[in-house]
Amino acid sequence: MKKIVDVVGWVCVVVTVAILIMTLLTTYQFIYLKYFNTYKIIQICIFFTMITWAIKMYIQKSNSTNIVYPLLCMILAVGTIFFMYVGVY
After folding, report:
1. 80 in Cβ contact with 50 (< 8 Å)
2. Best exposed site among 36, 37, 54, 58 by fewest CB in 10 Å?
3. CB–CB of 70/57 below 8 Å?
4. Looking at residue 38, what is its pLDDT?
5. Structure confidence at residue 60 (pLDDT)
6. What residues does each domain of the chain span?
7. What average pLDDT does this structure show over 42-66?
8. For residues 22 and 36, is the Cβ–Cβ distance under 8 A?
């Protein structure tokens, strides 16, 4: 279980970085990709990456005091979806 969550976490990071690069290239008009002209897709990727990493950190915590980092990841993920829902992107 730990291995699967670890691999999924790193895959999410690689996908998020690739989407970040494509979004920046589209934003600065080096290339045009239809789905990358807004920040909506990057917010969705950040949401899934933060949820995955929160699960990963929760599974791999060494003691009960390290619950702060997974909670921070979850707060960032919820904040990202909240701002997407409100329309700030």
Report:
1. yes
2. 37
3. yes
4. 85
5. 84
6. 2-86
7. 87
8. yes
